[in-house]
Amino acid sequence: VLNSLTPTRPLPPNSLGSTRLHSLPLRNLSTKAFAVPRRKAMALFLSTYILSPVALHEIASAEPSVGLKEYIDSFDGYSFKYPQNWIQVKGAGADIFFRDPYVLDENISVEISSPSSSKYKSVEDLGPPEEAGKKVLKQYLTEFMSTRLGVKRESSVLSTSSRVADDGRMYYQVEVNIKSFANNNELAVMPQDRVTRLEWNRRYLSVLGVENNQLYELRLQTPENVFVEEEYDLRQVMDSFRVSKVLV
């Protein structure tokens, strides 16, 4: 069912990660070089002050947030919030595409099924959330197919759920993890000369909704180590996704 979405292909590790989510060149820069220091910088700043036990508790309990902006597409019928420091990228193949300007394989996009080839009435047309999760994962793996020798992908569905939002519509949420491994010398004759290494380890979060007889999919991609630090913001983004009726 998900194959009816616009078939934008995610690029391999040295490209922008996924989709339709991933149609841009990617240098696969180390996320540690960008994501971790921004948290450490705050810690160093705070360490220069003498804080009371209460203040220390409040800081430990606070969730990091860069602030969110809202994007509304009344023409196509959807809206969502995204980190305000992310930039929009044109020509990425998705209906809309934003990415982190520093962690280049962290991004968000929206895909919409073709109105001429889909007649969705509800997200439940995909089956239960568990079934939808399998379809989402299969779609990702199809997009990540590689012709390179020595490439192996490990994947799993981490969670699936459904919720009725404040607009009265039901949405599915799917989280998957995909790891990519590759040999450092795939053409080597001797097995000991072909050392397998981890290329990337990413989490993909999808929110699925139906309106206007179309399937809408919000896609978030982030490295697993960055997700640990930014989970609060990213889950706010997921929860903000809404589809809406388009007036003809």
From TrEMBL:
GO terms for molecular function: calcium ion binding. Signal peptide: none annotated. SUPFAM superfamilies: Mog1p/PsbP-like. Residues 67-243 form the PsbP C-terminal domain. One of its GO terms (biological process) is photosynthesis. It comes from the Eukaryota. One of its GO terms (cellular component) is extrinsic component of membrane. InterPro entries: Mog1/PsbP_a/b/a-sand, PsbP_C. This is PsbP-domain protein 1. The gene is PPD1.
